[in-house]
Amino acid sequence: MGHLARWKAGAVLAVAAVLAAGTAGAQQAGETPKRGGTLSAIIQPEPVILTAALNTAAPTGIVTGSIFDGLVDYDANLKPVPALAESWETSKDGLTFTLHLRDGVKWHDGKPFTSADVKWTLEEVWKKIHPRNQAIFAKVTSVDTPDDRTVVLHLSQPSVAILSSLNSNGAQVLPKHLYEGTDILNNPYNNKPVGTGPFVFKEWSRGNHIVLERNPDYWDKGKPYLDRVVFRVIPDAAARSAALEKGEVQWGVLSPVPLKDAERLAKLPNLRVSTEGYEWLSPWLFADFNVDRGPLKDVKVRQALAQAIDRNAISKVVWFGFAKPATSPIPSTLAAFHDAGGISYDYDPKKAEALLDAAGYKRGPDGTRFTLDIDYIPYGDDFKRTAEYLKQALKRVGVEASVRSQDTAAFTRRVYGDRDFDISITWFAAFSDPQVGVNRAYWSGSIGKNIPWTNGSGYRNEKVDALISATQGEGDPEKRIQLFKDLQKTVLTDLPTLPLVELKFFTVEAANLKHPKASGDQVYGSFRDFWIDDGKASEAKADTPKSN
């Protein structure tokens, strides 16, 4: 293992150097976009639904970012820029937030997009169903629509995080005329979505592909440049690498190939590997302990298991350096909120054994203290290897673990619905504000409701719920930062979740795939500005031709 770790550490430095060179802008200044062509993209795993307003899983967000526009987009510095909303303002007291919508936008079925769609989605979806937005929009008491292009949010307290979550993934707007009065969670348009974005949903062949076609009536005239986008489902990691290398697909995000392949692919002249476009995510990988089950009910047991796990090894050996050890549920990328000097659990197997002994879980005749099941998010081999590493680490302190695999639907139901697990491994995006991406892991209101990517541990703490509520309405930046530091201290003491590593995702794309410098939320953004340089002289025109 020592030799393997040293080899992988060396490989990490080589990959980092290649990625540093590969983050140059994909489109040179002065280049004129060209019309036409089909972009083949990797989507893995296959989404379980095609509506990010109801399920915020990464595969859903990746596909639907080109079907639905956001109210805003985020630039590389995470500054909100106009999309469906042309402008916005907040009142001096922070209790009124007004959005001014773009004129002339149509849903893909030809109906006009209006303020009524935003109001209905906020009231019936974001505040009632959405995994993150129930908390983000909790302080919104009412919504006014004085005209078709104006949305006015009235708040009981200021909510600075709202503007950090208004893109297509954070706050996807649904067409009121297709959802009002229906069973929202089972509405057929969840899987044949009607959006406002640059591409129109055409076909979903489950297990094979999802096809989008150019929106001929898109509000941003002249765009998109591509005729078609085909998301291909390729479960095998080696097959994904081969498809990119051969040019059969031109784009894949969220580290679409085995980490050991990244360096080799980045050196090929027909490919580009980049870490840009993930700034909005701030992703962190963690283990949820089911605090209602067996030995894991005891905080001392959870703390012992934390000290049995070497997060440096997970970063270097399991994730090939595309990660760094996590010390808090608020990643270090959110520097203003991250508590660098907080509670930590250093790797110390001897102390872990002593804590387990003191908790009454001594080794039996066969050396085993108790057994656990570990379930991991089925998003690739890297997550499986993380589970296998935890199994090995826990075995050293006398805890036997079984690693279980299942598809995404079964995993989310097991963890967030049935709660039939001991330890689950998953990742969340913290986003640009911990209210958006971190609070959901600890808020007790979502437990057992089968709402994916929320509180899987089953952790209930009235103090933490109060802190979460306070962070939603505190308008003073310094006081709000202190509230988040108090939150970190409490949850790291109780340890319902164990932060493992902060992830560093990368994108692999064809060298002739052109687009402006990646935006901060590009991984969930659209292909509106993408085009393929096929070497031909034809150029995109300002008019909007009909799709094929």
From TrEMBL:
Family affiliation: Belongs to the bacterial solute-binding protein 5 family.
Xref: CDD domains: PBP2_NikA_DppA_OppA_like_13
Secretion signal, residue range per the UniProt entry: 1-26
Residues annotated as domain Solute-binding protein family: 79-442
Protein origin, superkingdom: Bacteria
Keyword Signal: yes
Keywords from the UniProt entry: Signal
InterPro entries: Peptide/Ni-bd, SBP_5, SBP_5_CS, SBP_5_dom
PROSITE patterns, A to Z: SBP_BACTERIAL_5
SUPFAM superfamilies: Periplasmic binding protein-like II (SSF53850)
Location in the cell: Periplasm
Name assigned to this protein: ABC transporter substrate-binding protein
